[in-house]
Amino acid sequence: MGNRHKLAMKINSSLIFAAIAIIGIFFWFLFNAQDNEITPNAPISASAKQAPLPTVVIQTINASPHEKYFTLYGRTQASREVSVKALTSGRVVATPTPKGRKVAAGTLLCRQGVDAREANLAQAQAALKAREVDYNSAKVLVEKGFQSSVLLESQKAAIDGAQASVTQAEIELGNINIRAPFTGLLDTQIAEVGDYLSPGQPCANIVQLDPLHVIINLTEAQLGQVKIGQSAQIDLATGQSVTGKITFIEAKAQDATRTFRTEILVPNSDYAIKGGLTATVRLSAGQWQAQHIPSKILTLNEGGALGVRYIDYDDRVVFAPVETIDEDPDGIWVTGLPDRVSIIVEGQDFVADGVKVSTTNAAYSPDKP
Predict the structure, then answer these.
(1) Are 56 and 312 in contact (CB under 8 A)?
(2) 359-368 pLDDT, tens per residue?
(3) Of 87, 112, 183, 187, whose CB neighbour count within 10 A is largest?
(4) Which helix (H) or strand (E) holds 111?
(5) Is residue 291 a contact partner of residue 333, using CB atoms and an 8 Å limit?
(6) Is 101 within the bounds of a domain?
């Protein structure tokens, strides 16, 4: 009995110690779990609630009427260019006008040899006189009744034929003088003294530079905003600036480019402007509501469109595609923005559309007349 009682006491003590150990382990895990867990109801600091907003610099601008211009590139071109050719055969005996000289209509460019032309003219004139004598003799006979009137008519026809031969000989003699067909510039002296020219062979090239043409090409979109008679501002590669008027717009688009050839007439009485010069042409397309902005703020969106970022009423970034209608040394004039808008002038490349931002005002003032 005594041994049995002692054994029972030992078992009970072991069970009590095991239970205490289990309870201790349970509370140890419980307390450690609470230490590592973030209590959801614990207060969060202001910095943890919201990260700092990106800051951009803005400027509020208003739209105003401004002239829209197309800037196109073309070239100057002579209004006429002609290769003056021989009308008869003969050797060139003189080229009296120096190359590069301005010449009036009728100025002698090449002279061919007379050869037998003067003799042919003299022969035709002698034949004419003979026919006139025959006619006068026949007239006397007809008036006296010795000849019929038919003879008189025949002699009259012979005179007409002789007169035609004289005229032909005079023209052939005159053809040895090759003259400028219009006022222009002797650009190239092709034939030289000693050259033999047949009919159709060139003596010289003449170009007419007054008036001068400036040739440009209008796109399909520009066509409806430009009209004949409209003025154009033209800057040449030489530094010269002139004005002209549109005189011609092609009726049909060119197949290769889908553009319309357009000619601008420019006065050039002193021939100071040469042909073939590169020309920058500004054409007005009327007044548009536009804003003046610094060109540096233009940026691209994800789709590759060129535009401007601005701030809406909720200080969120908005992208607007824009079109440039004019430019000056201080910036560019664009359309496509709201009439009154706060554009981002600094930091536009570091914020995305829809992002809420913090703003500061810029000192730049793009509202210019």
Answers:
(1) no
(2) 898 765 544 4
(3) 112
(4) strand 108-112
(5) yes
(6) no
